[in-house]
Each structure stands twice: as structure tokens, then as C-alpha cells.
UniProtKB/TrEMBL annotation, chains A, B:
It comes from the Bacteria. PROSITE patterns: HTH_GNTR. Residues 1-62 form the HTH gntR-type domain. One of its GO terms (molecular function) is DNA-binding transcription factor activity. CDD domains: WHTH_GntR. This is DNA-binding transcriptional regulator, GntR family. It comes from Evansella caseinilytica. PANTHER family: HTH-TYPE TRANSCRIPTIONAL REPRESSOR RSPR, TRANSCRIPTIONAL REGULATOR, GNTR FAMILY. Keywords: DNA-binding, Transcription, Transcription regulation.
Length: 210, 210
DNA sequence: TATAACTACCATACTAGTATATTTATATAA
DNA sequence: TTATATAAATATACTAGTATGGTAGTTATA
């Protein structure tokens, strides 16, 4: 239930400001109210839903301050992770990153953005796993859900995936070359990229923002 | 329910490895099973409980890798926060920090460790609030619950609160003096303090560790 | 006409019973 | 005595009904 509803919110099938109810969702997904309620609670913790006690539940508007907080956390953590894996990265992870990167190039050519989206995620996840920080990655994923919605908006607007993919390649190179300063620096600018377009999107869709 | 049960786990009223059940807790706290279940789910997400489907629920052993992950996140985030608030800190926050510090000194004299524990928390929280990162603080608090249990163990062992309090004072001074490098440096060593005693405690209470 | 009180409705919050799977104890056979 | 099959006990997972509180619409009154 949690995954299903979250996907629907992130993919804009349910838009910010929409009122939804346990009962309604339960009937649509053909389960009882409790599993839906449990999903609601988890999504509320993540601030994707706002539960107003005894009254109703609405899909949260995008909160740019929350987006910035999550971006900040990612920047501070991932620069350190990039630095940490330099030099001591396992062959297995190197192989996985290489595979990931070649698929990214393929998807870039074919313009299959949805798949590219997922490859982007798993590129970063490989680095977290390598440095034994899988829980930190889950935490970041949880904080990042408002930003994920923004990314889906941007998908249509044809973002500059070229830059993203080439940065991934540069980060990989810096890591295998055991150049922590370089790895950290590129990772930092990589994670500052998301700052672009935020304000522009807010102007374009003002109703969906807080 | 969530807060109650969490407190009991952190204060070692329910020990790691203990089997607990929704029904049992519900009866003891005189509510029905659902609110307890919801608390269980949240605590399981935080890894304080391990829910084994259709079988049972046990209080997790302390996982030193998780403790280290949380410590690492705190270090990377809080050094940046300390740097960020330098120079631009509001009078209100300065006042709150001063109040907090003088209370810390008082509690240090009187050896009221529990209260000191709370003052320590709120000292750091003030800095997060000042830099508009309240959600980041909640996130850290959530990741830190395994470490909180360790701290309670240490409370009895009479830890070196003198060092902790004087570091707080030094961090405060660096911030009001607008010395970001100094602030960051002390914050870093402050958050490395927790590394001490971890392995020792594990030897002392091997059954409670993973 | 505007405001206050009342009522019907609907949302979440909680309770309790049922379903399902796992564990444990027991009985039987090799 | 040991191994295996089976049944009872017990835990979570789910369903559905009830309680409680909040919202909006209507009516009555100033």
C-alpha cells in the first residue's frame, strides 16, 4: 500500500492539495482500511500527506524548504561518501558502476528518461553500499520525496541529462583514480545542479507549492 | 504509545532480545491493539524493534554499525551547521544558548545527569533551528536511537560530562566570535567523543549487542 | 440581513473479532 | 532413543464495526 500510494503521489497521479480518504483508497485498491491507514501514517511522517485529525487527509504541497534541507543533507553526506570510497573500492562495485554507466549512456541516446531516473538512483546507492551506509541512503531517499516529485515535473521539460551523466562518469573516474579531492568536488557540484529550475517550476505551477 | 514504548526501550526497562507482543503491551497500557501496532511499525522502521511476520516481535540488539552510521551523519551535518550559523546567529538564539549553557553548568555541579542529557540535546537542536533545519534534526534523532540506549548505559558509568560541557561552551564561543573554522573543528571532535567506550561497553554487556 | 445554534454527514481514531502463518509441544513409528 | 508427523497455541495481518470529533449546510433568531 505504502509503495503504491507513494508512487501515485510522486508520479502526479494524485496532485498536491487533493483530499483523499482511507475509505476511498481502500475501496479502490480493494483492501481494508487498516493497511491503507498504516501507509497514510508513514507517508504523513514523510510529509507527503497531511493528516488533519478527525477531519481529513490531503496530499501536501511541495515544500521548497524541505527540498533544500534534503539537498543539503545529500550534499554533506555524499561528498564525504565519495571521498571515503576513493582508493578502497571493491572490484565488484567498480564493475557494477561500469555497468550502470554504460546503461546510462544507452538510455541517454534512446531518451528513456524514466529508466535513466532509476539508474541515477542506483549509481548513488552503489556508493553508499560500498561504504557500509545503506541506512543512510534509505534515510536520504525518505527525505527526498518532495524533490522526487519535482524531478518528475522536470522530466517532461527535458532536463539536461547530458550533464548529469557526464558528471557521474567524472565521479567514477575520480574514485578509481584515487583522487578524493576531485571526487568530492564533482559530487558537490553534481548535487548543486538540482538548485536550478526550482524557482522556475514554482512560477509555472504555483498552486502545487506551499 | 510510540513515545511511551520508545522511552521504555531506551531506558532499558525493556532489554534487547526481549520478546514483546502487541496484545501484551496493549493490555498493560490499557488500549487496544491497533495503536500499539502503529507504534510497533514506527519503532521497527527505526530498527528498535524487529517484527518477524506472523511470528513475533523482539527488541533489537544494539547494532554498532548503525550507531556508527548515525554518528557519521551527525558529524558531517553538524559541522556544516556550526559553520553556517557563524556570524548570522540571531540574538534570540544566542540568548537561548547562553541560558542552556548556564543550566548545563548547574546540572554539572549537581550531577543531575538525566537533565544534562536533555540539555545536551536541546543545545544541538537550537543550532539546527537557527539554520532552518528542523527536519534534519528530527531525522538525526530518529537514526540516533540505538546510540541513545548506549548513552543511558554510560550514564551509570559516570561519563566525562566535564569535557562535553566545556566543548559546548567552546562551540558557542566560536560561533559568536564568527570563527567558522574553529566552530567546525570543535564540533567535529565533539561528535567523535562518542567513539570512546563503544567497544568497552560491548565487552561489558555482550548479550545486548548484535 | 447577519449571526448563532443545531443537525446531518463524514473523516479519522479506536476496538475487537477473524484469518493466516509460524512455532512449539506431543504422539507415534522406525 | 531419535526422527517425523501432527495438532495446539500464539503471534502478526487483516477486516469490519463503533466512537469521537470536525465540517458544512440549514434554520431560527436578533
Amino acid at each position: 500500500m505504502y509503495t503504491t500510494i507513494k508512487q501515485q503521489i510522486i508520479n502526479w497521479e494524485i496532485k498536491p492539495g487533493t483530499k483523499i480518504s482511507e475509505k476511498e483508497v481502500a475501496e479502490k485498491l480493494e483492501v481494508s482500511r487498516t493497511p491503507v491507514r498504516e501507509a497514510f501514517l508513514q507517508l504523513a511522517q514523510e510529509e507527503l500527506l497531511e493528516i488533519i485529525p478527525q477531519s481529513g487527509t490531503i496530499v501536501s504541497n511541495i515544500d521548497l524548504e524541505l527540498v533544500e534541507e534534503a539537498r543539503f543533507v545529500r550534499e554533506r553526506i555524499e561528498t564525504a561518501v565519495a571521498r571515503e570510497v576513493c582508493g578502497c573500492i571493491s572490484e565488484e562495485s567498480v564493475f557494477q558502476l561500469e555497468m550502470n554507466l554504460s546503461m546510462q549512456e544507452l538510455c541517454l541516446e534512446k531518451r528513456t528518461h524514466q529508466r535513466l531516473f532509476e539508474l541515477d538512483e542506483s549509481f548513488h546507492k552503489i556508493l553508499f553500499d560500498e561504504s557500509n551506509k545503506s541506512r543512510t541512503w534509505s534515510m536520504i531517499r525518505q527525505m527526498n520525496s518532495h524533490f522526487d516529485r519535482l524531478r518528475v515535473l522536470r522530466l517532461a521539460a527535458n532536463p539536461n541529462w547530458n550533464v548529469v551523466v557526464s558528471q557521474h562518469k567524472e565521479i567514477f573516474q575520480a574514485i578509481v583514480n584515487n583522487d578524493p579531492d576531485q571526487a568530492e568536488q564533482i559530487m558537490e557540484s553534481h548535487l548543486k545542479l538540482v538548485n536550478f529550475e526550482k524557482e522556475e517550476l514554482k512560477k509555472q505551477y504555483p498552486d502545487y507549492f506551499k
